[in-house]
Amino acid sequence: MQVQFAIDIDPSRAARVTDSDIKDVQRLMASVVDIALSLRPARRQDKRDQLVALLLEDAPLRPLDVKRAMLEARALSAVRDGTEWLTATEVAKHANLGLANPIATISRWKQQRRIFALHSGGKDYYPRYALGTDFHPLPVIKDIMAVLPSHDPDLLAAWFDSTSRFLGGKRPRELMATAPAKVLACARNMIEVQENHG
After folding, report:
1. Residues 21-55, buried b or exposed e (16+ Cβ, 10 A)?
2. How many helices (H) and strands (E) does the chain have?
């Protein structure tokens, strides 16, 4: 995109304005446009948040809503604290993906549902337990995500971090490297149980 600027100069001050002044103003304006364009997605999200807040303005939070939100926050915090989470840069470095465009490779893994990530602070974080010793996705992750297609990343992370009777009280993430077939069977079992009781 190209942005052109028209600058009106008061004739009484025209003699004092130099080409250098005009170039400085053009550079400044270009910077302002770049900043404004980069903030557009954030502004859209802010507007959506404001609209939701407006629509919910008269709906008071019930104590149950607050308790549920607190429980969910505590559960998510436990999931995030329970394992090692790596940025794409860290995964790329440990996986020896080379210099070409290692982050694109990891993004492709995510799009192909070979791995998932939690998004926090503007970055994606990948669970260490989903990666092999070579820091490439364990093949079973794709299979598990296929069995649990409706699980978003937070739900997947919670499932991997929850103890399971099917796994003898262990968490699926604890058995990823040693018993991946058993973890996959656990995911299938959970879906079967839900379908039989749903």
Report:
1. eeeeeeeeeeeeeeeeeeeeeeeeeeeeeeeeeee
2. 7, 3
| Rounded distance between C-alpha atoms, residue 133 and residue 122, angstroms | 27
Residue boundaries of the structural domains of the chain: 11-55, 84-197
SS3 category, 84: coil
Question: The sheet that has 123-127: what strands, in order across it?
Answer: 85-87, 123-127, 118-120
Nearest Cα neighbor of 173 from 96, 116, 93, 112 is 116
**Is 126:106 a contact under the CB 8 Å cutoff?**
yes
Predicted TM-score (pTM) of this structure: 0.64
* Distance (Å) of CA 2 to CA 30, 35, 36: 10, 14, 14
The answer to whether the CB of 60 falls within 8 A of the CB of 138 is no
pLDDT in tens, the chain (198 residues): 444 545 555 555 555 667 776 666 666 555 555 555 555 555 677 777 777 666 666 666 677 777 777 777 777 777 778 899 999 999 999 999 877 788 899 999 999 999 999 998 899 999 999 999 999 999 999 999 999 999 999 999 999 999 999 999 999 999 999 999 999 999 999 999 888 886
Sign of CA dihedral 36, 39, 41, 42: negative
Rg of the chain in Å (alpha carbons): 25
